[in-house]
Amino acid sequence: MKELIVSTCEKNFIRQAVSQGKRLDGRKFDDLRKLDIKYGLEWGSCVTTLGSTKVVAQVSCDVQVPKTSRPNEGLLFINVELSGMASVHFESGKINDAEVKINRILEKCFRESKCIDLEALCIVAEEKVWNVRVDLNILNYEGNVVGCCSIAALAALAHFRHPDVTSTGEGIIIHSEAERDAIPLTIHHYPVAVSFALFDQGKHIIHDPTALEEHVSDVQLVVCVNSYRELCGLYLEGSSIKTVDLVVRCSSQAAKIAKRLVDYVRDTLQEDQNVRNSNMQVPGLVSCVNEDSLFALSQERLIIKLTDRELQEKIKELTTETEEKLDVEMKDCSNEDMKIVSTGPSSAELVSNLDVKVGLGDKNAWMVDEGGDYSSESENSEVELVQEVSRHEKVIQLELSGDSEEEEVTVLKPENLEQRDLSQKLPKKKKSGKK
Amino acid sequence: MDLISDQGLRVDGRRAGELRRIRCKLGVYDQPDGSAYLEQGHTKVLAAVYGPHQIRGSRTKALQDSVVINCQYSMATFSTGERKKRPRGDRRSTEMTMLLKQAVSAVIKAELYPRSQIDVFLEVLQADGGNYCACVNAATLALIDAGIPLREYVVACTASLANGKVPLVDISHLEETMGGPNLTVAALPLSGQIAVMEMSQRFHIDHLEEVTQLALQGCRDIYKILDKAVKEHLLETGDFFPQLESN
Questions:
Q1: Is the separation of the CB atoms in B3 and B163 below 8 Å?
Q2: Residue A160's closest CA among A131, A119, A129?
Q3: Per the database record, which ranges form the Exoribonuclease phosphorolytic domain (chain B) (predicted)?
Q4: Whether the Cβ atoms of residue A222 and residue A185 lie closer than 8 Å to each other
Q5: B224 to chain A, minimum CA–CA distance in Å?
Q6: Is residue A322's pLDDT more than 80?
């Protein structure tokens, strides 16, 4: 397995941000990314999205001979697939440590905590039992994969139904769903894996870490808890920790989070059940792929986000600093430095004569067509250009992240700003001309 | 059958906070640089350490600032009640290997051997609960026997919870199968740091603290036993240790 490579500056940046109580995506330390569960048409299939981590779960079953040590118990098999699809640093085909780790945590979480009544899956003791198999495919690896997998597995198991069986004495008959309703699994309790990343010897505890945060943190802790505050699994990774107290604190925090997650899973299951009961068309998994939006496949280029409050403060800071200079500047550009250029029949453009600063793009040379065919046409038409600007709209660009290529552009509406304009740093002022 | 009787005795006659008998021996083989044999109750483990030596296999694995630690956990096919199909390569032993590596990495002074490799091989001869603990303890002894500088001992111990209230230390296989939860802790007993923590089955969060504390107490008790064995071994092998002779 190739390692995810993180540069030293990036590491330091994240560490420093965390020590100041900030996260790159603007979340608080105990915030969860957006969780979404979509169920498929078949029983026991779902797609779970946690931020940009994505997992597909599918539960299936077949009849098998039980283990000799437990002749009257069904089997539960969990398989996690972490292929090259999930992230570049995984090679498909080979068993890697991350896959084994996730698999074992989930096995402990679901099988060893006995959350599913396996005895109910017995058909004929010592001969035939149901073998329930949970397949988890990780589509996108973006941190807290264990948590996302456990939610997916839980939702899929709770959604799953196996066919009804009758024993005739000599053999068994497996009924199709048309003959008899399929039977849901008996679930004693709902466990979820909650993962934490610890920084600075446990001084800062982050819930639901992204891949980057996971990689940079000192310790990664996964706690499996059910909604009754029972611990079902624990996994500690990274450097060693100083006190037990830390684990205790994390697990009590995990218990609260787990309760919320389990409630969410139950709600989505109930919703799906309602849709099915009301004989409506079940949307299935198609609905989460085929979005009729132009931005269906768009990705955010920048993961760094500031919260609204921070943004407001920043604006205030900038505006107060440069308020005196602003009046002068505004006067300058409002009059003689602008000229109107006709660009075609019944259209004109307001072009600034001021030098446009580098990095914001020069004025559009393609559209300015002085003395071209159009200008002669426009003379003939009834449209007359008037040197009057009736409405002007200021578009202000706030540069918050220096002059890097990925700069955050915030567009503010004039009413938000209370007529206060911004610094000399922001030279791009566009006015829409109206005839 | 209860995990603990009204008289406070466990299935095998121990008290709640009592360990199984530990017997160990350092330097059992000549071929490896360090080796150890450890018995914890009926659980029997052999450990062998090779290294530090040049990187085996591809040189690209070499680390410029620390040592590559290679662990292998394997269970003899005859070690369990039902004969095992293969000694290693399944998920459980891969997980054990990962956890062992984590425990051992926590104590080895890795920065002393850049571009080198240390191999730790463990073989479970008889599995009767607490295999991982026995392996970690045996690995510590083997590393000491190999003369590899360690920060301190790394010692592992299990703990469980009987009848939902009484914490038990050092769980046997029978107690595991009877349905007791199982918390494994690998700790550095002198500094009290926790290197590995792992659990299966379930118990209420409120008990986590006391069960972990008992496991840590178990680690400290095992440390005393191991330390005594190491000192005895050094006296036997004839190395001159004035401060030991004076004791």
A1: yes
A2: A131
A3: 18-149, 153-217
A4: no
A5: 21
A6: no
CB B46 within 8 A of CB B125: yes
B61 interface with A at CB cutoff 8 Å: no
What pLDDT, on a 0 to 100 scale, did the predictor assign at position B134? 96
Nearest-CA neighbor of A232 among A160, A150, A156, A157?
A150
pLDDT at A367 over 60: no
Give the span between the Cα atoms of A202 and B11, in whole angstroms: 39
Evaluate whether A40 touches A155 at the Cβ level (below 8 Å): no
Tokens of A413: 């509406």
Its pTM stands at 0.77
The partner residues of A249 in beta bridges, in order of sequence, read: none
Rounded Cα gap, residues A198 and A205, in angstroms: 5
Which residue in B has a C-alpha nearest to residue A80's C-alpha? B91
ipTM, 2 dp? 0.89
Contact A247/B200, CB-based, under 8 Å?
A: no
A112 touches chain B (CB under 8 A): yes
Coil, strand, or helix at residue B34? Answer: strand
Cα A333 versus chain centre, distance: 43
Closest Cβ–Cβ partner in B91, B183, B199 for A100: B91
The tokens for B1 are 């059958």
A237 touches chain B (CB under 8 A): yes
Amino acid identity, position A344: G
Q: How far apart are CA A115 and CA A136, in angstroms?
A: 18
Residues of A in contact with B197 (CB under 8 A): 234-236, 247
Give residue for tokens 């495919």.
A137
Interatomic CA distance for residues A11 and A17, integer angstroms: 10
Task: Judge: A236–B183 Cβ closer than 8 Å, yes or no.
Answer: no
Of the candidates A175, A172, A153, A156, the residue with the CA atom closest to the CA atom of residue A164:
A175
CA distance B78 to chain A (A): 17
Paired with A195 in beta bridges are: A222
DSSP assignment letter at A241: B
Q: What is the DSSP letter of B78?
A: T
The band of A93, judged by pLDDT with boundaries at 50, 70 and 90, is low
Nearest-neighbour CA in chain A from B101: distance (Å): 11
At A26, is the pLDDT very low, low, confident or very high (cuts 50, 70, 90)?
Answer: confident
Partner residues linked to B32 by β-bridges: none
Q: Do B198 and A236 touch (CB under 8 A)?
A: yes
Distance, in Å, from the CA atom of A339 to the CA atom of A370, rounded to the nearest integer, reads 12
Q: Does A242 touch chain B (CB under 8 A)?
A: yes
Helix axes B131-146, B208-236, angle to 10 degrees: 40
Q: Report the gap between the CA of A137 and the closest CA in chain B (Å).
A: 18
B147 backbone dihedrals φ, ψ, rounded to 5°? 75, 25
> Euclidean distance between the first and final Cα of chain B, in Å?
47
Q: Does B94 touch chain A if contact means CB atoms closer than 8 Å?
A: yes
pLDDT tops 50 at residue A419: no
Q: Provide the token pair at A258.
A: 């787990």
E strand intervals along B107-212: 116-126, 155-162, 166-169, 182-188, 193-200, 203-204
Segment holding A330, helix H or strand E = helix A323-334
Residue type, B229: A
Pick among A99, A146, A198, A240 to test the B interface (most B CBs inside 10 A): A240
Using the beta-carbon criterion (under 8 Å), do B212 and A235 form an inter-chain contact? no
Looking at residues A350-366, what average pLDDT do you find?
A: 51
Cβ partners under 8 Å of residue B74, min gap 6: B87, B88, B93, B121, B122, B123, B124
* DSSP code string of A390-425: ------EE---STT-SS----EE-HHHHTT----TT
CA distance A61 to A77: 10
